[in-house]
Specification:
Blueprint (H helix, E strand, L loop, with lengths): L1 H17 L2 H47 L4 H23 L5 H10 L4 H21 L12 H25 L3 H23 L5 H11 L5 H20 L7
């Protein structure tokens, strides 16, 4: 009986292979996968590369100012000016988010596709890692307050950063005012809260330097708090009618 059953199974398998219909059943899936990979590769080149360059520049300049032991005001200005200049020079190509929390928030808002969001995140994290490696981990985000205060501060300041972004893009699509508002917001928040949490507001800013400084254990809490803060801003904005509504 076992041999007979095995023979029937073999005959059925060979018959199935001989019937070309199964190939056409799998073909749409393969074509969809190939199409997605091609579109993702194009998005990675067009957007991911820009986000990589912008994030590297921001982390390198900002954390570099920490490495050369500048004052709190100078460090805050370094972060703010670098963010503003990156937005002004690269914004037209990818939006110059240079911040995974911001990109995820725009994805949640419906402004960024799945593949573009993935391209942004890969570019941003790789840019942060390269900057952290070049600086040998200088300028990591460091907790100088309680865990509760860190969580509240990082959620709060990332919320304010994302809120400032949403506010300005509701009013204009010109890159100069967007760069000024966002850069100034980063500088002010970094100056006020930097001594307590490092004023990350940005998973990529923490990821690279902390990865090479030996403080990697704290990375997840900064990721969660910054992403949550940006999401809260998008959620609150969704409750506010736009001018066209």
């Amino acid at each position: 009986m076992d041999k007979l059953g095995n023979s029937h199974q073999l005959i059925f398998f060979l018959h199935t292979l001989a019937n070309p219909s199964w190939v056409f059943m799998l073909l749409p899936i393969s074509l969809d996968n190939i199409k997605f990979l091609l579109e993702f590769a194009e998005s990675m080149w067009r957007r991911g590369t820009v986000e990589f360059i912008g994030t590297f520049a921001m982390v390198f300049i900002g954390c570099g100012s920490v490495a050369i032991e500048r004052s709190s005001l100078e460090i805050s200005l370094a972060f703010g000016l670098s963010v503003g200049l990156v937005i002004l020079s690269l914004g037209r190509y990818s939006g110059a988010h240079i911040n995974p929390a911001v990109s995820i928030a725009f994805w949640r808002r419906g402004d960024l596709s799945n593949k573009d969001t993935l391209s942004h995140l890969i570019g941003q994290l790789c840019g942060g890692v390269l900057a952290g490696a070049v600086l040998s981990g200088a300028g990591p985000t460091i907790r100088n307050t309680s865990w509760f205060s860190l969580i509240v501060i990082e959620i709060g300041i990332t919320f304010l950063l994302m809120a400032s972004i949403l506010l300005i893009i509701r009013r204009t699509d010109k890159w100069l005012p967007i760069a000024v508002v966002v850069g100034a917001t980063v500088a002010v928040l970094a100056f006020i809260f930097g001594e307590y949490t490092g004023a990350s507001m940005n998973p990529a800013r923490t990821f690279g330097p902390n990865l090479f400084s030996g403080d990697a254990a704290i990375i997840p809490i900064y990721w969660l708090t910054t992403i949550l803060g940006a999401w809260l801003a998008v959620w609150l904005e969704s409750l506010i009618p736009s001018k066209t509504e």
